[in-house]
Each structure stands twice: as structure tokens, then as C-alpha cells.
Amino acid sequence: MSINPHAKVIKPDPRKTDQVYAQIRHEIENGTLPPGQRMSEVWLVEHTGASRTPVRDALRRLAADELVILEPRQAPMVTPLSLQTIRDLFEFRRVVEVAALENISSRVSNSPEIQEQFGQLSTKFNKLLDSSTNENFQTDFRDLTSNFDELVSRYCNNQFLEKSISSLKPHTTRLRLIAHADHDRLRQSITEHIDMCNAVTAGDLRTAGAACRQHLIHVEQSILNALITGNSPFLNSIDLRN
Questions:
Q1: What is the model's pLDDT at position 1?
Q2: pTM for the complete prediction?
Q3: Are 220 and 86 spatial neighbours (Cβ–Cβ below 8 Å)?
Q4: Radius of gyration of the chain measured on its C-alpha atoms
Q5: Domains and CATH numbers, the chain
């Protein structure tokens, strides 16, 4: 069989890979695809409406993010969670996020913009605290905490801290389904975010760091308690032995 050297080579569309990657990552983060779930290539092609090539490319990216495990002769699997994984994650968060918030607080005196942004967010958290019976409370809470995370990434002024925090985001996001199941805990979390915002606007780096550390300790405790007591949407998908 002869090969036409002038034949047009059809290259895969990187935009389709991006779409598949974004869809699967979102479904992993929101729990639609729970930890430990196997996803056959045939199912992924049907589920995403994409061909095999962008699906495979997207899976490689998700594996690099440690959200998917690729094994020989096995269907791709959503990375499982375990108690040890959760503990390790929060131990690292207490290093990088505390450092980021202290970094930001130390520069407030030279940046009215930082003071303004965190001050406005504190006001919004206070308003949310007064409307905790509103049917949109959880959605509003999620939006404001996402805004807080974005401000921390934007103003931390350290490329390595920013990169570390960004790499943790998909892992922390899927644990929020567990952390946000307790309505009373959400009210406590709002108060903690107010404390962090106020410490930043005051330029008090020690208080900001301490408030951040205490917040992360409480979030971890809330998640572990939910798993141990059986009050978790991922209960059957998490290894509770370690």
C-alpha cells in the first residue's frame, strides 16, 4: 500500500481535550465521580461525547493532577481517599496557606487594594452570617469561600506558594462536600473567615496566620468526624483503616 506524502494529517483538537479534562475534573470535584470509581474508555467516550484521543489525553492530565490513576489493563480510576491522605493534605495546607496569609498581611500597609478587597469580603461574610436560614445559604457560602481562596492566590506574591495552593485546589474541593454537610459548622467557618479577613486588613500577620491555622484544624476535624460517625457522602469510597 502506497502512502501519499501530501495527504493531510488530521491533528487532535486540543480544545476538545480541554473540554473533556474540565468536565471530568469538575465531576470528580463535585462528587459525581466518587473516589475509587472505575471509568472505562468506552464509557468515557460515550459520557463526554469525545473520541478516544482527547479522552486519553485528558486522562493523562488528570493523572498528572493525581485525580485519576492509570494502571495497565485496568480501567482508569478516580483517585481514592483515605484518612491518611486527608491528614497529609491538611498538614501541607497548614504550611502553605498560613504562609500565604502571613505574606499578604505583611504587605497591607503598602497595598490599599489588598486592604479594600479583604475588607469588602469580610463585610459580605458578615451579611451571610445574618442570613444563614436563607435557602441559598450554602451556595452563597461556597461562592464567598471561593472568593477568599482567589484573593489569597492573587495577592500572596510568591510564585511557589501560589503554585502549591493551586495544585491543592481540586483535592480540597472534593473534600468540601464532606465539610459542608454540617450546617452549624458552616456558621463557624464563616466566623473564621471573618477573623482571617479582619486580621489581613489590619496587617496583623501573626493573628492572620493563627486564624488560618485554627480554621484548617477545624475543617480537618469536621471531615474526619463526619467519616468516623458515618455522616459522609463518600463513606463507602474512603479507606477508613489508615
A1: 47
A2: 0.83
A3: yes
A4: 21
A5: 14-78 (1.10.10.10), 81-169+179-239 (1.20.120.530)
Instruction: Report the distance separating Cα 87 and Cα 93, nearest Å.
Output: 10
Cell of 114: 489588598
Q: What angle do CA 135, 139, 141 make, to 5 degrees?
A: 105
Using pLDDT thresholds of 50, 70 and 90, give the confidence band for residue 201. very high
- Cα–Cα distance, 116 to 111 (Å, whole number): 9
pLDDT single digits (tens) 62-87:
999 999 999 999 999 999 888 889 99
Q: Virtual CA dihedral for 235, 239, 240, 242, nearest 10 degrees? A: -160
Are 175 and 223 contacting, i.e. CB atoms less than 8 angstroms apart? yes
**3-class state of residue 239 by DSSP:** strand
Annotate 190-203 with b (16+ C-beta within 10 A) or e (fewer). bebbbbbbbbbbeb
